[in-house]
Design goal:
Elements lengths: L3 H8 L12 H8 L3 E6 L19 H6 L2 E9 L19 H7 L10 H18 L4 E3 L3 H13 L4 E8 L9 H8 L2 E5 L22 H13 L2 E3 L5 H10 L5 E5 L13 H9 L3 E4 L3 H4 L4 H15 L4 E3 L17 H9 L4 H19 L4
Helix pairs in contact: 2-13, 12-13
The structure holds zinc ion.
Length: 369
């Protein structure tokens, strides 16, 4: 039996690096930014996120250190053995089952994917309850307004939202969309690494579009005002969703193919279409998405995105704690501000990308109350 912390230390690594050099201009700007991130899998691991750790990428104290205001916590429910970005069989053995057992999750989570994501969501709700000076759960536009007001007198307050990674978490039952909504979920991604009942994954075997079940699921998500994330979805699924709704979409963590040709990234023309519909694209910090993991390489992907889809449609989507090798953790985010300035990106544009776009997206697209 491997101790849970040892297990996480194998997965959520940070490349060894000297302390980042940050200009005075970047320090001043970073302090005054509203920062948000669209994707972190931190609830998957056995760590109390209220405490600072010297492993993993995200916890509340490190979000505060990085001046992050809003964090989307995404819950992972099933990951295939032999995971890769090209081709994964739906029938492959699942790796999260072992993780759930080793980390001592309740027995009901061992064989039920809905229970797995609810268990992870409850961790976030618990922090919001116990540690309300530092953390607040955001469920609606009015919560967001409250959060912004509270942050004026308490600039250390971090806001959190809850999402899924892959709608196999529904266990094939549409009623579970309402159930997850009641548990605080406000964003749902459709696929993860394998084709599921809703349609094809970008890393599956069929490349199929939305199934009838997938369409019904989307209608139910739209009815509840759950935000739809098409990261990891096949290009055919993305096209079908774009045909089905005019509601703005998220790509919570990705790179751009024109910047980093990779089986992890969908075609740039689809990204442009998502943006043209008011969508928001979160740039990841790892190699398969942006062909590198240093702050400079992430800044270069952002710069490409601004040119391709327009500055209002680019945001941060770290994939922190998503079993990726990152070049930095969330407390070191100032290094990204520095590199964006170094790349010659103007201050108002940096403000938008680092978090204001994300804030405006949630202000418009969360349920009102
Ligand atoms: Zn992912």
């Amino acid at each position: 039996m491997v101790a849970p912390s040892l297990l996480e230390k194998q997965f959520n690594l940070i490349s060894k690096h000297a302390p980042f050099i940050v200009s005075e201009e970047a320090q001043k700007l970073h302090r005054n930014l509203f920062i948000g991130d669209l994707h972190a899998d931190s609830t998957l691991w056995d760590r109390n996120l209220s405490n600072q750790h010297n492993f993993g990428h995200v916890d509340i104290p490190r979000l505060q250190k990085g001046n992050v205001a809003l964090q989307m916590f995404t819950t992972v429910s099933k990951v295939p053995q032999g995971l890769n970005y090209e081709r994964n069989e739906t029938s492959a053995n699942d790796r999260i089952t072992a993780l759930a057992v080793i980390q001592g999750w309740p027995v009901k989570t061992w064989n039920n994917l809905t229970e797995r994501v609810i268990y992870q969501a409850k961790k976030i709700q618990r922090i919001a309850k116990k540690d309300s000076d530092n953390f607040m759960l955001v469920l609606s536009q009015s919560d967001l307004e409250k959060f912004i007001n509270k942050r004026k007198s308490n600039p250390n307050l971090v806001g959190g939202l809850i999402g899924t990674e892959g709608s196999h978490a529904l266990e094939g039952n549409l009623d579970n969309i309402q159930r997850l909504y009641s548990e605080g979920f406000r964003m749902m991604s459709l696929q993860h690494f394998f084709d599921n009942k809703l349609g094809g994954s970008l890393h599956g075997t069929t490349e199929q579009g939305l199934t009838k079940f997938g369409q019904e699921a989307i209608y139910e998500m739209l009815r509840l005002k759950i935000i739809i994330d098409v990261s990891h979805s096949s290009e055919n699924v993305v096209k079908d969703v774009l045909n089905l709704t005019t509601q703005p979409l998220l790509v919570s963590h990705t790179g751009f193919n024109g910047h980093c040709p990779s089986p992890r990234n969908i075609d740039d023309s689809l990204m442009k279409e998502i943006a043209a519909r008011g969508g928001l694209i979160g740039i990841g910090y790892w190699d398969a998405a942006v062909c590198g993991n240093t702050p400079r390489e992430v800044a270069s992907a952002i710069q490409f995105g601004i040119k391709l889809v327009g500055v209002e449609h680019v945001a941060l989507g770290s994939d922190f704690d998503g079993a990726v090798l990152s070049g930095f953790d969330t407390s070191e985010l100032i290094a990204l501000t520095h590199e964006l300035l170094e790349a010659g990106i103007e201050e108002p544009q940096i403000r938008l990308v680092m978090g204001e776009n994300l804030l405006h997206f949630f202000e418009r697209n969360l349920p009102t109350k």
